[in-house]
Amino acid sequence: EKLAEYLETLPAEEAELPGGRYACAQVLAGRRLPFLQHCSLGEVCHIVQLALSKRNLLGYSEGSIVPFGRSLEDVKSQFAARKQPLSKAAEGL
């Protein structure tokens, strides 16, 4: 819940995280976020995994991990909901 709130308010220049779960976890832990303060790096890595695979808080865009609303997965789900084909331009996100 706190991670979701953080990601929603994240400025664009800070939203692009490294594409690997471990590297992403390192960056998030390095930001010393209060809600991750008592988590080990392994726990933060697990949180990143859950945010990617179960909670749709994070997704991928051009090899980076980004908040889900800025991800290719979100674009694809929006097109699917409207039953429209995904354009070539959108696939490059």
Molecular structure report:
- The protein has 93 residues and is mostly helical.
- The chain is 52% helix and 9% strand.
- It contains six helices and two strands.
- The chain has a two-stranded antiparallel ribbon.
- A hairpin with a 2-residue loop joins strand 1 (58-61) and strand 2 (64-67).
- Helix 3 packs across helix 4 (41-53).
- The longest helix has 13 residues, at 41-53.
- It is elongated, with a radius of gyration of 14 Å.
- 22% of the residues are buried.
Q: Mean of the pLDDT scores?
A: 85
In terms of structural class, how would the helical and strand content be classed? mainly alpha
- What share of the residues lie within helices? 40-55%
What is the number of E strands? 2
Helix/strand order, N-terminal first = HHHHEEHH
Silhouette: elongated
Low-confidence stretches: none
Determine the N-to-C terminus distance: 26 Å
Oligomeric state of the chains in view:
single chain
Which strand order does the major sheet show?
1-2
Number of separate helices: 6
Q: What is the CA-atom radius of gyration, in angstroms?
A: 14 Å
